[in-house]
Amino acid sequence: DQDARQIEYDGNGQLILTPSMADDATDLDLYVMDVNRREVQRIVFLPGIDSGLLQPADCLGVDPYFVWLSLPYSGDLNLSVMVVLDLGTFTLEAIQAFPRIRRFCFDGKHMWVVSQYNLASGAISFFQKYWVSSGGFQIINAIPQSGRVVDMAFDGAFLWATFSGERVPVRINVNTDEVFPLGEHAMDDARMVCDGSFMWLIEGNGAMHKYDCASASAVGRHNLPGDVRFRNGLFDGTHLWFNWDEGNGDGPFKVAKLLAG
Q: Which end of the chain, C or N, has fewer beta carbons within 10 A?
C-alpha cells in the first residue's frame, strides 16, 4: 500500500522500489518484492546523518552487487547524498555527499552516476564512471557535459543521454569514454526506452523518435495522440509500453502498447 517513485529489476527475481513518500519522518526505506512469491520486504536504513534533512530517494540504480540511491538533502537543494547498499544483505556499503545526482545507469560492467553542478554560466553534468565487482566499486573516470541530464539508457554498447533545454542528445562509448552527438536534432526533456535493436526517444510533448542502435541513425518518428505530457516507458521483451497524461499533468493517464521493431 505504497506509491513507488522508482522501480528497478535486479536480474535475479527481485523488484527494488523506492517509496514516493517516507512512511516515517525519521526513517529512510525501500521495498523489495520477490516477483515469483509476490512477497514484499521493507528495508529501513539510517545513513548516519540527520535523516530529518533527507527526503525519500529520487534516484535509483541496481547492479548485480549493489543498490545505489540518491537522497535529496533538504538543507541544500543543490546537494544529494549517495547511499550504496549491498544487494544481498541491504547493509550500508558507502555514503557520500554529491552535487545533485540526476541519474544512475548500469552498462553491464560500470555504474554511471550523473551529478549536476549549477554554475553562474549554467549547469554542468558530470558522468562519473564506477567499476563494480563483488569486491566493491571504484570511480575510474568523470566526463563533463554542459546542461542538465534528463535521462540515460544503455543499448549494449553505448550509453545514451538526453538533456533539458533543446539540446542534441549524446552517445558515450562505455569502453573508450568518447562522446558523440546524436545527429543535429535538438530535443527537450526526452525520455528513452531501448528494445534491444532500437532506441526510442520520447519528448515531453509526445514526439517519439526511433533510432537504430547499431548505426545511431533516425529511422522513424511517431506521435502519441492528443495534447500529452509523456511520463515513461518500458520494453517487456516483445512490446513497448508508454504512459502519458493529457493537459496539465493531472490526468487522465493513458497507456499505449506498440510492437517493437
A: N
